[in-house]
Amino acid sequence: MASLNVRPISGRDISAVVALWRKAGLTVPHNDPYEDIRFCRRSSNAEILLGFEGEHLSAAVMVGHDGHRGWYYYVGVDPDSHGTGLGRRIMGAAEDWLISRGVGKAQLMIRPTNAAVKAFYDRLGYVEEERLVMAKRFRPAPDWQAGECTTTVIHLEMLSRPARGPASPPDIGRRIALERMAVPSVRFYRYLYDGVGGDWTWVSRRIMDDTTLKCVLEREGAEYYLLTVDGEPAGYCELERGADGGEVELSYFGLLPDFIGIGVGRYFIDAAIDLAWRPEARRVWVHTCDLDHPRALGNYMRAGFVPYGREIETLPDPRDAGLPMPPEPGRRGHDAASLYCDAAALAGLREVRHDVE
Fold it and tell me: Which one of 84, 87, 181, 326 has the fewest CB atoms closer than 10 angstroms to its CB?
């Protein structure tokens, strides 16, 4: 029997699990596997168990109980590993999960035409019972396979240092500090990136494995600054300086949710701009999009940035990162092409193609 290392799912496993389920033929148009994973992970009575052969994900099962009976869903084995005993092993792990929680009986549903799967469960000791299954949907069946996510990106630039004094922390009765960090650990960076960007569909680095992300964080020219309020992380910004230091991108910037609206945002963006211009630069630039905070574009423009280009960017499927699909462009609550400035002017921006990390 094949060796299998079984563990619960983590956030970085989601895309691989969905790929396995697709390969095993377990996905159907009227069920969204990403939503099923999110729903399962929110429950204290359910788990998704993954079976690995070395580093390769070879088997998975969703197991849970309703307070009375146990249930199995999405029991899948990589078709390339059929006949090696992995199905029995992953089901054994699911049974152990239920038994350890005091569940006395487990059930599953099989389509009547699926004779091969029925035979598999026959061999594991499961028996057919006379039951009529009835169902009622509480929401429309999703079209989960239409997973493309696009966003309108607005690029802004600043060609001279702002005509103001250095940014100073506001008096809000709390201690505010902005300090440069060494290259952050992957774990701490994920805390900041996911915390700041989770509501705004920050995906690209969320789906990176730890090794890839570590290499990105250690790249030449990257600088990291941590905003704290009373010693607690409140936000971060990331600068990227070009080879000669003249071109500086404010590549990531934002506040953690608990610190939005307390009066530190304007100071934070002004201070980040000051850092970008030190030492002297020729140009500082930033980008935002219609998935960002509704006030982001206006805040950047009030800080002195001027829009110069726009593009339509296709993002990785947010569900691969454990995030929901955002609303359609016309239903995102704001429009990056008309917010805080003349819509016709923004509509006339040149189309640019700038590969964003």
Answer: 181
